[in-house]
Amino acid sequence: DRFTIAHELGHYFLHYLHPKRGTSASFGRGERNTVETQANVFASSLLMPEKSFTNAWHRQAGDVFALARLFEVSPAAVEVRAQVLGLS
């Protein structure tokens, strides 16, 4: 739930003032969508700040489940954050 809320906050802060596009597009699960990717990066950065996450990663020896509990996110979110930061 925390990641979803942070993701939606990302949309609010990053995209609220952007004008609507002239064409409509639909995106299914797994498809690349810049707006959704930006909201995910915002959420990850908000909930798992780089310095705190990196320090915790080393302290926890990359234990995804321990980090998920620590940052109160899903193990999948931890795995993606670690990959983005080049830790895994």
Give keywords.
mainly alpha, single chain, 64% helix
Task: Describe the overall structure.
- By secondary structure, this protein is mostly helical.
- The protein has 5 helices and no strands.
- The longest helix has 14 residues, at 2-15.
- Residues 21-28 have low confidence and may be disordered.
The helix/strand class is mainly alpha
Order of helices and strands: HHHHH
Tell me the major beta sheet.
none
Write down how many β-strands occur, each being a DSSP E stretch of 2 or more residues.
0
Give average pLDDT, whole number. 87
Spatial gap, N to C terminus: 25 Å
Offer a quick outline of the entry.
The chain is mainly α and 88 residues long.
